[in-house]
Amino acid sequence: MRLGTTLPQFGDAADEVARIGEFAARAEEAGAASLWVGDRLLAAVDPRIGYGGTDTIPVEFRRALDPFVLLTLAATATSRATLGTSVLVGPLYPPAVLARSLTTIGALAPGRLLAGLGIGWSPEEYAGAGLGFDARGARLDELLDGLDTLWSATPAPLTGPRFPLPAVHVETPRPRPSVYLSGWSEGALRRVGRRADGWLPVGRLPSADLGGQASALLKFRANIDAAAAEAGRDPAQVGTALRVNVAAGLDAAEIADGVRRLVDATGFTDVFVDPMYAAPGIDASLDLLADLVSRTA
Description:
Helix content is 40%, strand content 14%. The protein is of the alpha/beta class. The chain has one domain: Luciferase-like domain (TIM Barrel, Alpha-Beta Barrel), CATH 3.20.20. Strands 1, 2, 3, 4, 5, 6, 7, 8, 9, 10 and 11 form an eleven-stranded parallel sheet that branches. Strand 1, helix 1 and strand 2 form a beta-alpha-beta unit.
């Protein structure tokens, strides 16, 4: 198992932004194989769509640190851990803007950046970026096309309807970041299989039915594998990094047991825990991480 954790980013963690570099360095020293950030632009007071199937948004999302800044701090403080995004709301970013940001971070952490992208769920975040909420999947596809072009060795035009550009010069990361995609819908899973370097599924603890969670994850992964094979790709070359969201009230033993059971049942050995609710704050998160590493080694 390669166990990672999220960087403190939301809620009261915003008060500790000056310690993010310290957190990243100490987390890597404690054995974290990966460090992750999310992407929240704003939290609507009366959301049209709530978080995670609810009609509300967690209070922690009212304060959110910038993911690119946090990755930069982590990149300069670490030397081994994978640095990932789970996830950036891809359609909020024009390809050229996102390519520049990721290229810069990739240069600070050569070969360690994993760019995880999704389509998001908040209409208000799209409005905050001056965008409509419809056609998000098509917008993500055009973003991926644009990144492929901008990160290629030969300049070429971007011909899509949303981000047209003549051929331009852009610094190309060496190597380019891996691009993982999130999603559960049939279209999203087929997109992963056709064109992504990997998939970013989510598990939850506690769970009254971890076996059911694992079965669902494997079913979704089978759809990805089928789409990859249809596209002439080797499904084994499409990775998986499993995020585990942990509710408040669980201790390290319970979390470690749940993570181990999910990993054993799915075979997804790249896994990272989000302790935002279970261990808020830098010191509590580091203590939990050290305990989890020792219990899952």
